[in-house]
Amino acid sequence: TGGRRARLIEFNPASAAYAGIRFGVGSTTVALSDGLGRILRERRVPSVLGRPDESIGRAREVFLELLAEAQVPATRVQALGAAVGGLIDADSG
Hints:
This protein has 93 residues and is of the alpha+beta class. The protein has one helix spanning 52-70, and strands at 17-23, 27-34, 39-46, 77-84. It is elongated and about 70 Å long.
């Protein structure tokens, strides 16, 4: 009784996208999600050991491929997180 009528407000999942990269010893995983955190695309590729520049370059390539496959413009990506588990020996990679 009184006040404004109730209105349902929903978040548009296509308004944003997020990416994650996990650099592992055996494989690197790249994932792309929508604004609600639902995985749109995910790909695992063999890791490039001992060559960090190549590892990052390969992850970038996969990320761009996932964007194209999901038809998500790069401008929609709001954040990207990267994880490297365990201890890293800088000399041996």
